[in-house]
Every structure is written in structure tokens, then in C-alpha cells.
Amino acid sequence: MKQYIGAHISVGKGYEDMVDRAVAMGANTFAFFLRNPRGGSARALDEDDLAKAYEKLKKHEFGPLVAHAPYTMNPAGNKESVLAFADIAMSEDLDRLEYLPDSYYNFHPGSHVGQGIEKGITLISEYLKRMLDRPLKSTVLLETMAGKGTEVGSSFAELATIIKNVDRDENLGVCLDTCHIHEAGYDLQDIDGVLQEFDAVIGLQYLKAIHLNDSKNPRGARKDRHELLGEGEIGWDSIISVLTHPKLRHLPFVLETPQKTEKGYGNEIAELRKRSAN
Ligand code: FE
Ligand code: FE
Ligand code: ZN
Asked: CATH class for domain 4-277?
């Protein structure tokens, strides 16, 4: 079985160009921003470009894409303008994703900025109810977080509460980031144990995508600093045990390692395919 492996790539000249560059790096999935990640508005709609991109994705048998919401989006914020931006950004991004059916839309649940974890969870749950109150071809994914500052979502229990509150299973899931859960304190040397816990607390059926990253910090550091695969505190053995785990093999794996070039990502993807023999 050929696994779906890719990296985060820049939009560049458009969607079709993005697929071409993903193919060139040996990827068969990828992550991308639908707008400037530091904020700003969506790119102009080019239906022709999106249709061509979608055709190429089918032709090259890509797995689901994992779009990433802007980093500045915070539905657990305490300012009107911040909350308004979160609503506009996700609504517009989900509209755009309708042109690339069956994609995932991954977002950082948010930071409660001192309002408390419970208030944060309530705000995020209400937000998702608003965002998902319509038919959608994509699925929104809550990303597991490192627990930096006042981030919500660094424990499986917090994500489980949000999912239960929203009660909209068809369009809601989880993206597990290996760097983040390691820094949140989970032990990737015991991947079976981590997945058992995930299953008991959230349910493995909600796990839809993996961000495969190494970490610059020891377990539990809660700082969120990504590292190149095999060069950090997680290490190759745990990285490969995640990639090849029978309960995870079918998922899209996306690298967000600090590579400076797409060629660098290409090498990392090739290394993963070699080490896992697929
Ligand atoms: Fe992320
Ligand atoms: Fe991530
Ligand atoms: Zn991160």
C-alpha cells in the first residue's frame, strides 16, 4: 500500500501549480493556506484553476488534502474583532474548499487568553456549531496543540469535550501533530499506548490526519518548536512507528518541519518512504 505523504507548501502561482510542485516532490497529499497565514483576505476565486487542480489530484491518485487555517484565527479570543475574523476566515475558506471536495480543513482550536479553559472550550464549541451549520463537502479538523501559553486542545479530553458539544460527526475530526502531543507530554515511544488513550477519550474514528514533525524540545516542554525528522527529541524510531502503525497507515501524513526548500521536503518524503519501505 502506497501511503499518503506530503508537506506544507506555499500557494505560489495557484492551485494547479501547487499540485504540480507536490508531484515533483514525491508527495501525494499536501497542506496549504487558503489565504495569507498571518491574516488578510482569501485569494481571488479562479474556478478554472481549481478545476484543473482537482483533475490532477485525481489523475495522480492523491489522498485528501489538509488545508490549514490562518495562525491568527482565534475563536476563543476576547476581542470582537478577533472573533469576527475567525468567523469570516473559516466561512470563506470552507466556501473555497467546496471546489476541492473531500478535503480537510485543519485549525488550531484557539487560545483562551486568560478567560479560562472552560470558557475557551465553550467559545470554540459555539463557533464550530455556527461554522458547520450547513452542508459541506469538507471536514474540519481540530489540531492537537502543544499547550503553549493559553492554548486550548493540548489534551485529548479537551478536544473530546468540544467534539461532544458540537455533535456534528460527519464534518468534524482531529489532526494529530506529533511535535505538539510530544510537547504536551504524550510519550511517542509508546505509540500503542497513545492511540489506546486517544481511542478511549476521543475515539479513533475521529482521527483523520497526521502532522508528522520532530520536536526541538523534550517531552512536556509545551513550547511548540518543530524540528527536521530524526534530528529532534522524538527521533526516527518513533516517527516511523507512527507512519507505519496499522491503525494510522491509511491517513494523510503532512510534514511541517523547518525545511527551507521544497527540495528539502522532497528528500524528507523520500527518506520516509525508504525507511517504511513504501
Ligand atoms: Fe498547525
Ligand atoms: Fe501542525
Ligand atoms: Zn506547531
From this structure: alpha beta
